[in-house]
Design brief:
- The complex is a heterodimer of chains A (about 250) and B (about 250).
- Chain A has one domain (about 35-235): MetI-like (MetI-like fold, Orthogonal Bundle), CATH 1.10.3720.
- Chain A is about 80% helix and about 0% strand.
- Chain A has ten helices and no strands.
- In chain A, helix 5 (about 95-105) crosses helix 6 and helix 6 runs antiparallel to helix 8 (about 150-190).
- Chain B has about 250 residues and is an alpha/beta fold.
- Chain B folds into two domains: about 1-80 and about 150-245, P-loop containing nucleotide triphosphate hydrolases (Rossmann fold, 3-Layer(aba) Sandwich); about 90-150, no CATH class.
- Chain B is built from seven helices and ten strands.
- Classes of the chains: A mainly alpha (about 250), B alpha/beta (about 250).
- The interface of A and B includes residues 143, 243 and 249 of A.
- The structure holds adenosine-5'-diphosphate (ADP) and magnesium ion.
- Adenosine-5'-diphosphate (ADP) binds near residues 32, 53, 55 and 57 of chain B.
Chain lengths: ~250, ~250
């Protein structure tokens, strides 16, 4: 409810701002929604959203799986940590734009280069967060698992993942927002479809209606992913922390 | 430098540790165990008694294979399947009571697990999460988990510590009944001599750190002693400890 009111207030501010300024610079909500409708009817909006979302998911999945594996090893193994830490710091401080341009130069203006560049930008953050989680694994539970001869699969499933879950959730949250912003840049620089490409077009044509007509639905989409996917998932993995969780045990 | 093997034979558990040192980062080291020997026949319950900080948990960790950095030999019972109750329950907090048992004992039959929960008074807590349990209940879950794997050797680290008197008595009786029924070779570690006499077929009295066994006393069967017999045994044990402290080191098998 409060979220709804705050969203309504934002719309109102936008309307006021638009009525005070040049409609070419800041078109009002109604004009933008009309444009969204137009793009939706033509099908262009959905196909571009789908393409961008697919890139977000691919890059995110890549970064998270490699980040989790590397972060885990660095958190558990001192030698690996010392060996890889300088690389990690380099990658952390490499500007996103440099990674993107290099990827396009080396691998051409291809899908692989685009997704790889985005994943590479998210990777160091995922590593750092998961490494923190791996360092915090409870040695007491590890001993317990050793005595009871847990299989490797059981160890991962029942010991490691539940303890890493809060860290993975944190990496997911910061990761999704980072990834989708970088995906737009990658699309703007080297792809011929997707939301980023359309925004580039809007910029070239100085069409702010078009720009907002793509930016807003995408923000809404990511908000939806966050509210209906990430948050429920986070609640699900941390349900054991709450006393009332008992009833959910058998889901 | 050390050797942990599995063998059968008369002696089920045979521990002979020349030394166990903890090394600190600054290069100094602390000797926890020195020349510690104990032998426990199959199917018996051994009770290791020693003051706090003398090295009891260290000894259990070596036997359990959690720490391989020692000099000596440990021969485990045949098959060497271990069940262990740590000083803290060490349950998976994100799993229910019954799932904790299932995960540690994936080969246990469901009705065996149910019977175990029943026997330990845990049936109504089967779907509870560890944080909803008192320490006494959590200990019982840890005990159920250790028994569910049908261990060849059961290790109990201070199973009654920090429980109030009534709870401690209940749990002590439960443990005594379970290991009697099942004839599991069991090694219990405690700082409480009376607890040791109540639970053990054989007592191993430890010195202060670095720990060694200063006396081994067989508790006459049946183990559930009359009060005066238990008191006589307690006196005998205290005398043995005093003699050891006075310099003589009586050893008996
Ligand atoms: N991991 C360790 N590193 C260094 N010292 C330790 C470690 N674990 C135990 N100690 C020391 O070894 C001695 C014996 O400890 P412990 O086996 O836990 O005793 P107990 O279980 O009989 O109370 C203590 O002095 C303790 O401080
Ligand atoms: Mg201890």
């Amino acid at each position: 409810m409060i979220r709804f009111i705050s969203l309504a207030a934002l719309l109102l501010l936008w309307q006021i701002g638009a009525s005070l300024s040049d409609p070419r610079r800041l078109p009002g909500p109604s004009a933008v929604f009309e444009k969204i409708y137009e793009e939706a009817v033509s099908g262009a909006l959905f196909s571009n959203l789908a393409i961008t979302l697919a890139r977000v998911i691919a890059a995110f999945a890549l970064a998270m799986s490699f980040g989790t594996a590397i972060g885990y090893v660095m958190g558990r193994n001192k030698l690996a940590d010392r060996l890889l830490d300088p690389w990690l710091i380099t990658l952390l401080n490499l500007p996103a734009l440099v990674v993107i341009v290099l990827a396009y130069v080396w691998a051409g203006l291809t899908e692989v280069a685009a997704i790889g560049a985005v994943a590479l930008n998210k990777l160091p953050n995922a590593i750092v967060v998961v490494r923190e989680g791996a360092r915090a694994l409870d040695p007491h539970l590890e001993d317990m698992a050793h005595v009871f001869r847990f299989s490797s699969a059981a160890r991962v499933k029942h010991l490691v993942l539940p303890q890493l879950a809060p860290y993975l959730a944190a990496a997911t949250r910061s990761g999704l927002s980072l990834v989708w912003k970088i995906v737009l840049v990658v699309e703007l620089l080297g792809r011929s479809n997707g939301v980023g490409f359309e925004i580039n077009m809007a910029f070239q044509l100085f069409d702010m209606k078009l720009l907002l007509a793509y930016a807003l639905p995408f923000v809404a989409l990511m908000l939806g992913v966050e509210t209906f996917l990430v948050q429920p998932l986070e609640r699900h993995v941390s349900r054991w922390r709450r006393g009332v969780s008992r009833r959910l045990d058998r889901v | 430098m050390n050797d942990t093997s599995r063998a059968g034979g008369a002696a089920s558990l045979d521990v002979s540790i020349a030394s166990k040192d903890y090394h600190s980062g600054s290069g100094s080291s602390l000797r926890a165990l020195e020349d510690l020997r104990l032998t426990l026949p199959a199917g018996q319950a051994g009770a290791v008694v020693g003051p706090s900080g003398c090295g009891k948990t260290t000894l259990l960790r070596l036997i359990a294979g959690l720490d391989k950095d020692y000099v000596g030999t440990i021969v485990l019972p045949e098959h060497g399947r271990l069940g262990m109750v740590f000083q803290e329950p060490r349950l998976l907090p994100w799993r229910s009571v019954i799932d904790n048992i299932r995960i540690a004992a994936p080969h246990a039959r469901e009705d065996d697990i149910a019977a175990l929960l029943d026997e330990l008074g845990l049936a109504e807590h089967a779907s509870h999460f560890p944080r909803e349990l008192s320490l006494g209940l959590a200990r019982r879950v840890a005990l159920a988990r250790a028994l569910a794997v049908k261990p060849d050797l059961l290790l109990l680290d201070e199973p009654l510590v920090s429980l109030d008197a009534a709870l401690a008595r209940d749990l002590r009786e439960m443990i005594a009944r379970l290991i009697d029924e099942r004839r599991i070779t069991t090694l219990i570690v405690t700082h409480d001599l009376r607890e040791a006499i109540a639970l053990g077929d054989r007592l191993f009295l430890l010195s202060a750190r670095p720990a060694c066994v200063v006396a081994t006393i067989d508790v006459p069967a049946p183990r559930r002693l009359q009060k005066d017999a238990a008191e006589a045994l307690e006196t005998q044990a205290r005398e043995a400890l005093a003699a050891a402290r006075a310099g003589a080191q009586p050893r008996h098998h």
